[in-house]
Structures are given as C-alpha cells and as structure tokens.
Specification:
Elements lengths: L2 H4 L5 H9 L12 E6 L2 E10 L9 H13 L3 E8 L16 E7 L2 H5 L10 E2 H11 L3
Parallel strand pairs: 2-3
Antiparallel strand pairs: 1-2, 3-4, 4-5
C-alpha cells in the first residue's frame, strides 16, 4: 500500500479541485461510512467517528446522512468510538485486541425506532455494541 493511500492523501487533489467548481456544486466526503447489511440487504448507515473527532448532529454532513437514510428507508447513525488506551489528547495506536467502547447517536426516525437509550455517560462495551448490531438486523 502506498503512503498516499495509508495517509488518506490519494483523493485530496480531487477534493480540493471539487471545491473550486463553485458554491452551486456542493459535496461532502464521508470519512468512515459503513453500510451494515444482512443477506445482501442494507439495514443501516453508520458514520463512525473517533472520540477525538467532532460530532455535530446539526452539521451539513449529519443532515445529508439523515436525508440519505430517509431516502433509502434506512436508519442513519453516527457512532462515536474510543479505545481503552485513548486519553482524549492524542491519536493512540490501537489494535483489534484493545477494548473498544461505542456511543450511538440516531440521526433519523428510522434510527430512533431501533434506538434504546442509556444515561449520559454510558458507553457501550464492545460486546454490547455487537449485540446491538445483531439487534438492528432483527436477530
């Protein structure tokens, strides 16, 4: 894998060029969008954001994700994640062996139908999150 690919620079030129095409050609890139599916049928759109990233459900990006989910008839979520080693000040190097925690933020009514709430400081453990992923698949 090239350094440009590893560091997400591959498409930077096209992104910059697109911005020069003017105000009437808006677009957004989605950094880590996953389409959750079951038996080849999409069941949810999830935009993953690391704890060091910004989450704003009223941003243009969140509004576009909400509309995309609505148009597809799918729940749309932002899921913020962190690792046990994250201290909130730097991007830590993590592995799949590190404990992960998840915060689920519904973006549309479809998502709210599948949502169940926790307290303000309750992050899901990796096991709880896996169970939730099964739940959105109807299992």
């Amino acid at each position: 894998m090239t350094a440009n690919e590893r560091h997400f620079k591959r498409d930077a030129t096209l992104s910059q060029k697109h911005r020069t095409w003017g105000y009437n050609v808006p677009a957004m890139d989605i950094d880590f969008l996953l389409v959750e599916f079951d038996n080849l049928i999409p069941v949810a759109l999830i935009d993953y954001r690391h704890i060091n990233g910004t989450v704003n459900t009223q941003s243009v990006g969140a509004k576009v994700m909400r509309q995309l989910g609505n148009m597809a008839g799918l729940p749309a979520f932002i899921v913020q994640y962190r690792y046990a080693s994250d201290d909130g000040t730097a991007w830590a190097t993590n592995t799949v062996a590190d404990d992960a925690f998840f915060w689920i933020i519904p973006l549309n009514e479809h998502a709210e139908q599948l949502w169940f709430s926790w307290g303000d400081d309750d992050w899901l453990t990796e096991q709880q999150y896996k169970e939730w992923l099964h739940k959105i698949r109807g299992r």
